[in-house]
């Protein structure tokens, strides 16, 4: 289990190279690299500019530490259950490819999704549903405030004996509303449904306990709250995926594949557990050291302390913005709002894209999503960033 350091974090701006005068409250779009991650990338480039002396085991060793670090971050006892993936769509495609192998799967069952989910968590089922005779049940966001408690109750009510699979994130990617994953996991197990979690917008900044949730799959892109490079992600695949069907037949995923002098002795046996689901060329000589550095830094900072920092950072801003007619989900434990990603609903008269552009013109970066602004701070942000945000919104909305 990840140890908890109760000390409050201070701003870590000095560990990043963001330019002066830029107010980047947009980690949910892409995290900036820390200096530590930058250095790891430069060092890897220098090292691999000359491939002389490269050993077979070097194709495999880089991912070992990353699996261990990610496992520590999510409280996974078995790093061999972690696969290296290029994207969330790839990770969800593994789930879709193996859904036909689920015990008891039958036509007429359904897959439960939350409304307005990220496309990679929706498109994955377009092919498998007609093939297996399944339908989609979408649990839409409630209209009235507060939304989180009602949304969670509706989600739990939608999971029943006819549910084959539940796909849910720790928080909604647009609004930052949390889902009670422990309750969802328990309900899924009660009815015999698989549970797949897209942790991209939470893991790394919000505590996640795999042992408590007990999902079948956890899929996470690396370039947001894991603070790593693009096109590199991680996925946990539980025992239901043992002996499953991978998306591709990569040679590295087979037993004894580090014995290059014997590669022509074709090996039918896969390496253990989640290894078969690794993307081809998963070594990522340049990117893997960057992800390792990012994960090491996150474990030092700790997600719980990142939550505490971002909560304190924005606490004084919310009352003034609400007086301007904005609305946000209240705090309500694991059924309320997160603090690293907050959806701020704008007044009816305000156009979100116009507001976003006004912010961008004054060097404040957030994202417009539907009727809300998605505000996503991290440890590199300070009160000056929040003050700039409030100043522009006050000018635009008053």
UniProtKB/TrEMBL annotation:
State a single Gene Ontology molecular function: transaminase activity
The UniProt keywords, alphabetically, are:
Aminotransferase, Pyridoxal phosphate, Transferase
The question of whether Transferase is a record keyword is answered with yes
Mind giving the lineage of the organism this protein is from? Bacteria, Pseudomonadati, Bacteroidota, Cytophagia, Cytophagales
Cite the Aminotransferase class V domain residue spans from the record: 62-388
Q: Which InterPro entries match?
A: Aminotrans_V_dom, PyrdxlP-dep_Trfase, PyrdxlP-dep_Trfase_major, PyrdxlP-dep_Trfase_small
Q: Which organism is it from?
A: Spirosoma soli
Q: Which Pfam families match?
A: Aminotran_5 (PF00266)
Write down the superkingdom of origin. Bacteria
Q: What is this protein called?
A: Aminotransferase class V-fold PLP-dependent enzyme
């Amino acid at each position: 289990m990840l140890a908890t350091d109760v000390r409050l974090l201070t701003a870590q701006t000095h560990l990043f190279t963001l330019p002066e005068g830029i107010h980047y409250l947009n980690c949910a779009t892409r995290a900036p690299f820390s200096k530590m991650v930058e250095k790891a990338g430069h060092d890897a480039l220098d090292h691999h500019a000359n491939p002389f002396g490269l050993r077979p085991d070097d194709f495999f060793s880089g991912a070992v530490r990353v699996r261990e670090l990610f496992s520590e971050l999510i409280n996974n006892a078995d790093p061999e259950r972690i696969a290296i993936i290029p994207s969330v769509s790839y990770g969800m495609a593994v789930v879709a490819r193996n859904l036909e192998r689920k015990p008891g799967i039958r036509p007429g069952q359904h897959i439960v999704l939350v409304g307005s989910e990220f496309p990679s968590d929706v498109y994955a089922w377009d092919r498998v549903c007609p093939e297996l005779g399944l339908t989609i049940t979408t649990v839409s966001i409630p209209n009235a405030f507060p939304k989180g408690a009602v949304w969670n109750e509706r989600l739990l009510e939608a999971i029943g004996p006819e549910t084959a699979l539940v796909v849910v994130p720790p928080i909604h990617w647009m609004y930052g509303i949390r889902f009670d994953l422990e309750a969802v996991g328990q309900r899924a197990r009660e009815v015999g449904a698989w549970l797949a979690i897209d942790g991209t917008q939470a893991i790394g900044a919000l505590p996640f306990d795999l042992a408590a949730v007990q999902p079948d799959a956890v899929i996470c892109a690396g370039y947001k709250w894991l603070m790593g490079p693009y096109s590199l992600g991680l996925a946990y695949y539980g025992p239901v995926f043992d002996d499953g069907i991978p998306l591709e037949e990569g040679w590295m995923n087979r037993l004894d594949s580090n014995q290059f002098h014997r590669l022509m002795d074709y090996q039918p046996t896969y390496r253990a557990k989640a290894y078969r689901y690794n993307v081809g060329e998963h070594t990522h000589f340049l990117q893997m050291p960057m992800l390792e550095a990012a994960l090491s830094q996150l474990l030092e900072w700790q997600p719980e302390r990142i939550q505490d920092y971002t909560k304190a950072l924005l606490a004084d801003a919310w009352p003034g913005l609400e007086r301007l007619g904005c609305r946000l989900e209240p705090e309500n434990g694991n059924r309320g709002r997160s603090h690293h990603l907050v959806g701020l609903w704008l007044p009816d008269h305000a156009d979100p894209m116009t507001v976003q552009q006004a912010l961008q013109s004054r060097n404040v970066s957030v994202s417009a999503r539907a009727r809300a602004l998605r505000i996503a701070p991290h440890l590199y942000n300070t009160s000056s960033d929040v003050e700039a945000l409030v100043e522009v919104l006050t000018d635009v909305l008053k």
